[in-house]
Amino acid sequence: MKKLYILLVMLLASVAAIAQDGRSLYNKYSDLDNVEAVYISPAMFRLMGKIPDIEMEGENVNFAPIIKTLTGLYILNITQEDIAADLAEDVKRFIQKGQYELLMEAKDSGEVMRLYTVGNDQIVNSLVMLARQASETSFICIDGTMPRDQLEDLIAKATQD
Fold first, then answer.
1. 122 with 147: CB under 8 angstroms?
2. Among 26, 57, 142, 151, which lies 20 to 30 A Cα-Cα from 92?
3. Are 67 and 45 in contact (CB under 8 A)?
4. CA–CA dist 15, 125 (Å, integer)
């Protein structure tokens, strides 16, 4: 499961004007102590879109087709339990309000990771990941017009090993 988490973080990190709820969550938590925060702007996605195919070293996973469709990214990593619990509750409300569907859930030794999407049968407009373990909680939210089949293939390849 850690390999999937690392692959997803690398996908998202290599890659905005995210939905208001994603922006609100980021703004609420990003300046707090014990919170690591990353924001990737639309300008960075335009720059990344000009780079030829991007492959992760040692892995046969090509991120370029997905990166070119992204328009926003927010990442929060929290190590303080009370703040992490507040974030988890806010994400739960965010997911319910946005009509997200659970794409995937993985549990291992007290660690829980869930991926949610919103969109239609062809396009994913937003992907949200919430990962919780004893010492930290991570939230990742991306927006774009990601082709659902490409995104699902990418996740399937990342989880194969």
1. yes
2. 151
3. yes
4. 15
What span, in angstroms and rounded, lies between the C-alpha atoms of 78 and 21? Answer: 18
Give the residue from 4, 28, 18, 33 showing the smallest Cα distance to 144: 18
Q: What is the pLDDT of residues 6-62, one digit of tens each?
A: 555 555 444 333 344 677 899 999 999 999 999 988 788 777 766 655 555 555 556
Helix, strand, coil percent values for the chain (each to nearest 5): 40, 35, 25
How many Cβ atoms from other residues are within 10 Å of residue 36's Cβ? 12
| Burial (Cβ within 10 Å: 0-12, 13-18, ≥19) of residue 124 | buried
Note the pLDDT tens digit of each residue in 104-119: 899 998 899 999 988 8
- What's the confidence (pLDDT) of residue 104? 87
pTM of the model: 0.75
Max CA-CA distance within the chain? 42
Backbone angles phi, psi at 156, to 5 degrees: -60, -45
